[in-house]
Fold this protein.
Amino acid sequence: MREPSELLHRFAGDQDLDLQAEWNHQLIRDEGHCNPMTVPELKKRLEGWLVGEYKAVLFSLANEVVAYALYRETSDELYLRQLFVSRDRRRKGIGRAAMKILMVQIWPKKRLTVEVLCKNTTAIEFYRSLGYQDYALAMEIMPGSKT
Ligand SMILES: CC(C)(COP(=O)(O)OP(=O)(O)OC[C@H]1O[C@@H](n2cnc3c(N)ncnc32)[C@H](O)[C@@H]1OP(=O)(O)O)[C@@H](O)C(=O)NCCC(=O)NCCS
């Protein structure tokens, strides 16, 4: 496989919505989230986000798109909502190379935030390896669960 240092990036356009929606669907399963939205529903949600405050970046190796990131910038923070590396390309440095591009070339210097499900230990290890530190723990009681 090619070196992740050859990773190229571009901002996503309308032509990328189908791929992003499909990958969003995979991301939800990979991270262990219970969101039941279908691919068409995710596409519609994404369209709304992208005409609003979110931006998406696609990363490619040798003309093949291998990852995407979706983020929102506010006055004091850069919030990474989604980062996804194609399932057959993981653990080869692509996620790290993509984050380096975001941090060095795209994002201004600000507080960087991300939310990760506790059960998504892969992502937790990944973000910690980049310097993100544990900050808050969201807690819940689901309706119908024993208290
Ligand atoms: C999380 C994710 C983006 C990481 O991308 P990746 O390209 O596989 O990660 P990298 O190969 O760049 O890994 C960089 C470092 O992260 C850590 N890491 C990555 N995957 C790991 C795993 N499965 N277990 C433990 N540590 C891991 C390691 O420290 C790794 O460095 P090393 O390989 O030199 O040990 C990818 O697994 C993914 O798309 N997951 C599904 C979607 C998701 O959960 N996204 C995050 C929530 S939005």
